């Protein structure tokens, strides 16, 4: 699970997403440029995921507390800057939007990305 989340967080880093590295062109990416040792980029990817993706996509098989532990982020900082007011540090990272409403708006409910990376691969999500 730790490796999955580290890959997931890094893939969402906007700096790497905009760079043309690791064989990624503007449209197609053969493999994600993943560096599991770059904690700063992993932490930034987690912040970007929570800010932009978690509104529609859930990661309900991950918990805020585990993310903080894996990415070496102080749980107080996670609580203060990365969680909505009703969430608790032990809660799963789940969207608060009704999946039936999402299906009506988008045609299908956005997939849970914690499962999607296992099904397709971290490179596909990147």
Helical fraction = 40-55%
Please give the count of helices: 8
How are helices and strands ordered from N to C? HHHEHHEHHH
* End-to-end CA span: 18 Å
- SSE-based structural type: mainly alpha
Spatial order of the strands forming the largest sheet: 1-2
Oligomer: single chain
Average pLDDT rating: 79
List keywords for this structure.
2 strands, 126 residues, mainly alpha
How would you characterize this protein structure?
The protein is mainly alpha-helical and 126 residues long. It has eight helices and two strands. It has helices at 2-11, 14-18, 39-53, 64-70, 75-81, 99-106, 113-119, 122-125; strands spanning 59-63, 92-93. It has a two-stranded antiparallel ribbon with strand order 1-2. Helix 1 packs across helix 3 (39-53). The radius of gyration is 15 Å and the shape is flat. It starts with a helix and ends with a helix. The relative contact order is 0.19. The model is unreliable at 10-23 (pLDDT under 50).
Short note summarizing the structure:
This protein is mostly helical and 126 residues long. The chain has helices at residues 2-11, 14-18, 39-53, 64-70, 75-81, 99-106, 113-119, 122-125, and strands at residues 59-63, 92-93. Mean pLDDT is 79; it is low at 10-23.
């Amino acid at each position: 699970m730790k490796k999955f989340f580290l890959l997931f967080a890094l893939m969402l880093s906007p700096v790497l997403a905009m760079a043309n590295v690791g064989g990624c062109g503007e449209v197609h990416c053969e493999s994600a440029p993943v560096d599991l040792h770059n904690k700063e980029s992993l932490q930034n990817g987690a912040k970007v995921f929570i800010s932009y993706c978690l509104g529609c996509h859930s990661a309900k098989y991950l918990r805020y507390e585990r993310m903080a532990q894996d990415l070496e982020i102080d749980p107080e900082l996670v609580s203060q800057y990365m969680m909505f007011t009703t969430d608790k540090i032990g809660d799963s990272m789940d969207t608060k939007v009704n999946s039936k409403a999402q299906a009506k708006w988008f045609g299908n409910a956005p997939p849970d990305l914690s499962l999607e990376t296992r099904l397709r691969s971290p490179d596909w999500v990147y």
